[in-house]
């Protein structure tokens, strides 16, 4: 798909959103301004004052419908279902009848109190890939129902709420996010089942890249980011953790329950997992390792024996090796089974009969070779360009950087004293170590 086609499809998608409609934008009602407003019956007599608006936030609909309102009548708080409401306008709620049958509010699965649970809480803007706060929420009548259609995250809106009452009831949508692009993090969202609570947010978050999720995790508070981690599959969450700054990752692992933290580290690539474990105390590290499968824990313990700042300390143990007799087609088939580690496998190590490294074939060379040719034939042809780029496990990373540049390679094989492969150190791992001041660029943090 061309860039122009993708941009056109995205524009059409955005135009279909509720807040793109002029009619909807003209009828926006501020939740912040509505709180404390009078609720009147059909005769125009005041019944009580609005305390909060109840919406079904975690259902299957893209725009949460309002399911009722909570009123204060004297000292009593009571719930009025949405089918009793005739109209919601700026500064007033009008009922359908003069007679009001009020009952105590009981939260149903998926329902939230917008003013209490969402307003002024952290949110994730999935389109903009940033963490922000809800300065105001906007309702609008759509298709015979009142829906939550947008969230305002602008500073002028926060100032408007501090002003006189006549300012508070007037929407000032300087920067409105369509609700379809928002994943909320209320502290007390719903007492409903987990599958009801998570459905809408997972649908929005699963398409974000690991680096984008890492930025969100770093910007969120402790409670919110643990909730976000719970929303993600462990494999997706682990990919995001690999992109986080070391100090932020260290804090996150300490905050998480040990069983969950161990599962996340277990899903990380070995070199990234070791880096994360090194930043913990010995007790914290052991608490996670004892909760992992024995084989994975054993592999990580072996990697931890290598000193930090050496090739062995930064290598990954994810390797694809091949004997000389295998065909190129067979090696490609093996690579297809390792797709989950695609970023860790830039080449295939060719081993001789004694298990020593004979060649290191880049994926490009494998891609252009004939399926029926053998790995040995390709290795013999590559000899003319020089020996494979290898380094000892105890070599310093500065030496690895020099050797990587000299070999003009994307990685170095880490070998023992007998030239048997132990792992592979990638170019990005060397850069991370020798250029620690070059951290990832962060998205702008709005209203933090």
Automatic annotation (TrEMBL):
<dbReference type="Pfam" id="PF00571">
    <property type="entry name" value="CBS"/>
</dbReference>
<protein>
    <submittedName>
        <fullName>Magnesium transporter MgtE N-terminal domain-containing protein</fullName>
    </submittedName>
</protein>
<dbReference type="Pfam" id="PF03448">
    <property type="entry name" value="MgtE_N"/>
</dbReference>
<dbReference type="InterPro" id="IPR006668">
    <property type="entry name" value="Mg_transptr_MgtE_intracell_dom"/>
</dbReference>
<feature type="domain" description="CBS">
    <location>
        <begin position="382"/>
        <end position="441"/>
    </location>
</feature>
<dbReference type="InterPro" id="IPR038076">
    <property type="entry name" value="MgtE_N_sf"/>
</dbReference>
<keyword id="KW-0129">CBS domain</keyword>
<dbReference type="InterPro" id="IPR046342">
    <property type="entry name" value="CBS_dom_sf"/>
</dbReference>
<dbReference type="InterPro" id="IPR000644">
    <property type="entry name" value="CBS_dom"/>
</dbReference>
<dbReference type="InterPro" id="IPR006669">
    <property type="entry name" value="MgtE_transporter"/>
</dbReference>
């Amino acid at each position: 798909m061309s860039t122009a086609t993708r941009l056109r499809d995205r524009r059409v998608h955005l135009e279909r959103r509720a807040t793109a409609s002029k009619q909807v934008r003209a009828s926006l009602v501020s939740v912040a301004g509505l709180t404390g407003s009078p609720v009147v019956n059909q005769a125009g007599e005041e019944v009580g004052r609005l305390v909060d608006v109840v919406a079904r936030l975690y259902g299957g609909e893209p725009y949460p419908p309002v399911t009722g309102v909570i009123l204060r009548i004297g000292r009593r708080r009571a719930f009025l279902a949405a089918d009793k409401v005739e109209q919601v306008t700026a500064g007033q709620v009008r009922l359908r009848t003069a007679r009001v049958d009020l009952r105590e509010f009981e939260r149903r699965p998926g329902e939230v109190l917008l003013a209490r649970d969402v307003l002024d809480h952290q949110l994730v803007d999935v389109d903009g890939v940033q963490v922000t706060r809800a300065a105001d929420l906007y309702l609008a009548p759509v298709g015979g129902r009142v829906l939550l259609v947008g969230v305002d995250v602008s500073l002028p809106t926060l100032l408007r709420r501090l002003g006189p009452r006549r300012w508070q009831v007037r929407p000032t949508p300087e920067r409105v996010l369509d609700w379809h692009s928002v994943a909320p993090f209320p502290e007390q969202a719903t007492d409903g089942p987990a599958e009801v609570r998570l459905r809408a947010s997972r649908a929005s978050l699963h398409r974000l890249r690991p680096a984008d999720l890492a930025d969100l995790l770093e910007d969120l508070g402790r409670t919110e980011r643990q909730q976000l981690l719970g929303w993600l599959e462990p494999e997706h969450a682990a990919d995001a953790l690999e992109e986080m700054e070391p100090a932020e990752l260290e804090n996150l692992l300490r905050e998480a329950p040990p069983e969950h933290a161990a599962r996340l580290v277990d899903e990380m690539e070995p070199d990234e997992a070791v880096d994360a474990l090194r930043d913990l105390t010995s007790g914290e590290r052991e608490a996670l390792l004892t909760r992992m499968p024995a084989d994975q824990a054993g592999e990580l313990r072996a990697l931890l024996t290598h000193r930090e700042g050496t090739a062995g300390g930064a290598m990954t143990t994810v390797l694809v090796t091949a004997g000389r007799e295998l065909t190129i087609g067979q090696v490609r088939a093996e690579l297809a089974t390792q797709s989950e580690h695609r970023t860790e496998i830039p080449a295939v190590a060719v081993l001789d009969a004694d298990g020593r490294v004979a060649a290191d074939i880049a994926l490009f060379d494998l891609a252009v070779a004939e399926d029926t040719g053998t790995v040995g034939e390709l290795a013999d042809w590559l000899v003319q360009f020089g020996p494979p780029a290898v380094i000892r496990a105890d070599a310093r990373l500065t030496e690895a950087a020099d050797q990587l540049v000299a070999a003009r390679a994307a990685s170095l094989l880490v070998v023992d004293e007998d030239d048997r492969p132990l792992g592979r150190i990638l170019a990005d791992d060397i850069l991370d170590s020798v250029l620690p001041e070059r951290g990832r660029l962060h998205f702008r943090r709005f209203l933090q």
